[in-house]
């Protein structure tokens, strides 16, 4: 295993030799290398002054060298060279990430890289951004990868940042054990919209890989492909992640399955690391040694959340928020009568189950849809059984000049001390009431919505803390036509947007600030693939996105083995155009895999 350590002055001559061999690897002639030699030389006194480090393999051989030069807030990547025999083994990636880590510790906020033309692909893949500012001259000590044959150096920059404050507070700044208990969480709610076998929930348990920015262990109900975890670790710079999968056959109780294995339970709970679930359950409380508080999940109920919103708004102070009217009806016929009356009045209606995930149990009904279905009673006969809520439909952005996002969400969490922390806002993709994905990052939430969203979300967080809830939460909103937001529900668990926030925090710390991250819950595959071919597809998607300047991370691989195969994915970039292009590439290539099985 390769590790990074500080260089020693006595190694200066040997390191100069490594640099020259690495430079020659690109095919430069002897005359050019001789001209570069004075500037590529590392002297004994440079080792400390230029903050030189080396990469050393398991045999104690030095296989790479890097330097971090200058003073905060601006510094330069002066050297980054890899022994030719070690090229392609991740040594350069390891050294670059070490430079960014040290830059953060020094207070550097602008890292300048003058790249040899042959290395531009590497720096783009590592997240550095090309800039128009001229690169240093060939003679610059900070730019030893000098010009060749008239080809100029290419200047890149990175913006080193520490892990976000909220992410440090979430797990204490360190690694965590992630428990994929999605099915166990859902099973707490006796709701007809939730699949009794929890098959979809076990796919979504794969999101346990992303419950914090850097896991130590993943605990999963179903087996997952080994190639998946290896690719995720490579894309997010994780090492030493343990995977304990295949713990359940059918029952959704993952925490109980861990407790039934005393050695595993002792290993996970005795590590001293935080144990992070998808959501709190009584069984998780027993596993984690945390008392279960009766009623702490009461605001997972849509009617209880609506009452909470009303109490907050009764105090005033949130002019940008409007609360949709909601009625709890006694029985199906009462719901049908109310729906029929609203339809006759030309009003659209939202029918909701008390609980549900991802939009399950939520149906948006326009008058035209009710009439097309044969009337209110016919509509209700097609819906899942169980109690229903009738809610006023909040119209869209008809009176706004822009066609901004309609579905937004606020994420935060309450720590064990009862302090509410803000994570941020996201824009969701919702189709016919069903959640399909979300995008997080700088500038995603439009300016007209940001203040109202964050203020109301923070107020909900304080109320949840006072009620005794501890853990992650979000508040979902829809936008009306006048620039106001209508809160529709709370989720007292991790969510798709929360996963995107975790990955954004990790990529910002790993590659530099400013990542937009999009989670797409369902990307259709053109065919079911054997595991090895799925690994090949994901590796190809990672390469294709990197060429665009984006990052691809497979989020839910197990859906690929369903009769109607699909993938959950994450894509990240520093600009909306690149992000959209990366998602389009992923969707097109995923769907195209079926072509290989068609007629020639």
List the helices and strands and how they pair.
Blueprint: E1 3-6, H1 12-24, H2 30-40, H3 46-49, E2 52-56, E3 62-71, E4 74-82, H4 91-106, E5 110-115, H5 120-125, E6 129-130, E7 154-158, H6 165-171, E8 176-179, H7 182-186, H8 199-204, E9 215-219, H9 226-236, E10 242-244, H10 254-259, H11 262-269, E11 275-277, H12 282-288, H13 302-314, E12 326-328, H14 332-344, E13 349-353, E14 362-365, H15 367-372, H16 376-381, E15 388-392, E16 407-414, E17 420-431, E18 434-440, H17 447-467, E19 471-479, E20 485-491, H18 496-511, E21 516-524, H19 531-548, E22 551-556, E23 566-573, H20 576-592
Parallel strand pairs: 4-5, 8-9, 8-11, 9-10
Antiparallel strand pairs: 1-2, 2-3, 3-4, 5-7, 6-7, 12-15, 13-14, 13-15, 16-17, 16-19, 17-18, 18-21, 19-20, 21-23, 22-23
Helix pairs in contact: 1-2, 9-19, 19-20
Kindly describe this structure.
- The structure is a single chain.
- Helix 4 (91-106) links the parallel strand 4 (74-82) and strand 5.
- Helix 9 (226-236) runs parallel beside helix 19 and helix 19 (531-548) runs antiparallel to helix 20.
- Mean pLDDT is 90; it is low at 137-150.
- With 600 residues, the chain is α+β, with helices and mostly antiparallel strands.
- Helix content is 35%, strand content 23%.
- It contains 20 helices and 23 strands.
């Amino acid at each position: 295993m390769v590790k990074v350590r500080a260089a020693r002055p006595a190694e200066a001559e040997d390191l100069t030799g490594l640099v020259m061999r690495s430079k020659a690897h690109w095919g430069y002639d002897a005359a050019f290398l001789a001209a570069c030699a004075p500037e590529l030389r590392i002297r004994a006194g440079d080792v400390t002054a230029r903050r030189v480090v080396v990469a050393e393999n398991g045999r104690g051989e030095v296989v790479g060298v890097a330097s971090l030069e200058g003073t905060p807030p601006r510094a330069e990547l002066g050297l980054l060279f890899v022994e030719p025999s070690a090229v392609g083994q991740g040594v350069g990636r390891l050294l670059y990430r070490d430079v960014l880590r040290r830059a953060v510790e020094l207070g550097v906020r602008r890292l300048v890289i003058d790249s040899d033309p042959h290395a531009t692909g590497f720096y783009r893949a590592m997240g550095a951004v090309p800039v128009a500012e001229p690169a240093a001259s060939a003679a610059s000590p900070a730019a030893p990868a000098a010009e060749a044959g008239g080809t100029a150096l290419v200047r890149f920059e990175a913006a080193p940042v520490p892990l976000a404050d909220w992410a440090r507070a979430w797990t204490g700044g360190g690694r965590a054990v992630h428990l994929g208990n999605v099915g166990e969480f859902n099973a707490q709610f006796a709701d007809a919209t939730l699949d009794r076998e929890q098959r979809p929930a076990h796919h979504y348990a794969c999101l346990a890989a992303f419950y914090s920015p850097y896991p130590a262990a993943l605990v999963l109900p179903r087996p997952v492909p080994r190639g998946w975890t290896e690719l995720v670790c490579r894309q997010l710079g994780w090492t030493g992640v343990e995977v304990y999968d295949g713990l359940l056959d059918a029952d959704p109780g993952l925490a109980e399955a861990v407790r039934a294995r005393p050695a595993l339970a002792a290993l996970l709970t005795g590590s001293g690391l935080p144990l992070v679930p998808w959501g709190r359950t009584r069984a998780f409380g027993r596993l984690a040694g945390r008392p279960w508080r009766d009623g702490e999940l009461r605001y997972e109920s849509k009617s209880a959340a609506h009452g909470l919103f009303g109490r907050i708004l009764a105090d005033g102070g949130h002019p940008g928020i409007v609360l949709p009217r909601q009625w709890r009806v006694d029985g199906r016929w009462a719901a049908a009568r109310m729906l029929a009356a609203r339809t006759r009045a030309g009003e659209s209606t939202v029918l909701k189950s008390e609980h549900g995930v991802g939009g399950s149990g939520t149906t948006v009904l326009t008058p035209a849809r009710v009439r097309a279905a044969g009337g209110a009673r016919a509509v209700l006969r097609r819906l899942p059984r169980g109690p229903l809520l009738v809610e006023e439909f909040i119209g869209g952005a008809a009176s706004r000049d822009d066609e901004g996002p309609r579905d937004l969400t606020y994420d935060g969490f309450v720590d064990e001390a009862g302090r509410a922390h803000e994570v941020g806002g996201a824009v969701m993709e919702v189709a016919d009431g069903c959640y399909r994905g979300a995008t997080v990052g700088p500038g995603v939430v439009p300016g007209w919505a940001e203040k109202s969203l964050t203020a109301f979300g923070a107020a909900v967080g304080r109320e949840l803390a006072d009620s005794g809830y501890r853990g992650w939460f979000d508040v979902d909103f829809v936008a009306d036509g006048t620039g106001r937001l209508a809160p529709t529900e709370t989720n007292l668990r991790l969510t798709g947007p929360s996963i995107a926030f975790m990955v954004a925090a990790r990529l910002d710390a790993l590659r530099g600030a400013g990542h937009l991250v999009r989670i797409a819950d369902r990307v259709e595959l053109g065919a079911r693939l054997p595991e090895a071919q799925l690994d090949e597809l994901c590796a190809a998607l990672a390469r294709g996105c990197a060429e665009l300047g984006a990052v691809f991370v497979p989020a839910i691989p197990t859906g690929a083995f369903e009769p109607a195969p699909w993938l959950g994915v994450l894509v990240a970039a520093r600009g909306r155009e690149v992000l959209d292009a990366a998602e389009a590439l992923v969707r097109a290539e995923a769907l195209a895999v079926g072509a290989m099985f068609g007629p020639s």
